[in-house]
Amino acid sequence: MLTAPADMLREASLRVTKPRVAVLEALAQRPHADVDEIAHAVRRDLGSVSTQAVYDVLRALTDARLVRKIEPQGSPVRFETRVGDNHHHVVCRACGRIGDVDCAVGHTPCLTASDDHGFTIDEAEVLYWGTCPDCATS
């Protein structure tokens, strides 16, 4: 993470709190983590923190666009701090591992829809599904 969590929160006009900082730090170390993974990491750093508090922090961070929510079908909701670049994801059908995928051609070509129905499009969600190298060899 290039910017310190406290600075990220201030730039987004959010109060700097220990749970918010801990969640951002957990996500910086664990991209694509689910709520349970994040809560476990936060508890390791801060001690007792409720799962609801982690959900509340994630909602505030997502609303402020400091965190991106990923919802692969059949998988728990995941979160990441890589925001603002409209990248995509690849998901392993066997183990659920997720990786980042940059746009394949040019600058965000996926934002040019064949029919935008009058919408101003600012984000596209693309999920590629397959089998990761570890699962393919086992």
TrEMBL record:
Keywords, ordered alphabetically: Cytoplasm, DNA-binding, Iron, Metal-binding, Repressor, Transcription, Transcription regulation, Zinc
A Pfam entry, by short name: FUR
Chief location category: cytoplasm
Compartments where located: Cytoplasm
Keyword Transcription applies: yes
Signal peptide region: none
Sequence similarity: Belongs to the Fur family.
Protein's recorded name: Transcriptional repressor
Organism, scientific name: Nocardioides daphniae
Lineage: Bacteria, Bacillati, Actinomycetota, Actinomycetes, Propionibacteriales
